[in-house]
Please model this.
Amino acid sequence: MRESIQVGSTTIKPGERAYGYLPVGVLAARTEVRIPFQVVNGASDGPRVCLESTLHGWEPMGAEIIRRAMLRIDPHGLRGAVYCLPLANPLSVEFGGTVESSGMRVNPADVLDLNRVWPGKRVNGWLTEQMAYVLWNEVITQCEYLIDMHDGTGACDELPVAFPHAFPSDSQPAVAGGIADGIGAVGGTEGLTHEKMAEMNRQIREMAIAFGSSVIWWREHPANPAMLSGQAMLNGIVPLVVEAGGAGIIDDTIDQGAECLLNILKHLEMIAGDPVLPKRQIMVENYVVYRSLAGGFYLQEPEIKLGAEVKKGQVLGRVLDPVTSEVMETCTAPINGIIISRRVRMPINPGGYIAHIADTDAVIWERSNR
Model:
């Protein structure tokens, strides 16, 4: 008989949906720090998946994508369970903001990045580490699969895209990276074998394809245990990093992102139905995140749309002096590729995002879904 699920003080019976909060602590002025969750416990046995979003508060669109996808899940027809953490870093959503966005990348309480402190600490840990500890132990370790959602930040919109991060298949070390000052990076190669890493890579690749984005950026690098995806890999949890939406706006990419999440559940045979796929999918091994050198007002060329194909050297837009109209920088495509994300916010500082471009000269897999 299928069992109930316990998350914090909330019990979710088979065939039920529940909402709750994970308490972390209380700030100096007695503001409670708590993290909201949703759990859908299916009536039948099956996999356990965590849908997590907003490790960075300036990337909140995954929360809306998760909300829309979950509205289409019937607990009585679900096999397994879906654990949702739509607002994993709530303080970073509530406070702060820059030219790039509303919200902050880091937790304003201690200025730490929640995606650099895993698996967290309960004792002798900063607040962000304590948040990671609660999320890791109460939810993520209950799951077999993890979807880590991001978006184009407050400055850019973005098509759904999968960023699978796999163990290196060459002579690179399996684990590297970490953070100084004693935070994050608990994890190593204990128990890792070539067979286990190959199996993890296979599952990550299959899940990335099943997500159903038109572009997949395949990356093979040593796992960083301070990052959520790296820590998951080292603990046998199959992770997939994805991005969709951005600029704090509701557009077609939000419903597309929800369909992609449902594709994952269909792939894992948790829900019935055929996947919703684009006409063509490609996997690339090179992908450029293009940033500005100059600050000013960014004016984009009208033909630079999401999904547009660009040629190396093609003008994407210009950074202008907002007073004199002087062109401070002409931004050109560094490669032949497809625009996956593009800036839609006019003010820009040096280093601001201009575009994400998938390299069409670096395709390692493709499929027609017609």
Q: What stands out?
A: The chain has a mean pLDDT of 95. The radius of gyration is 21 Å. The chain has two domains: 5-284, 287-361.
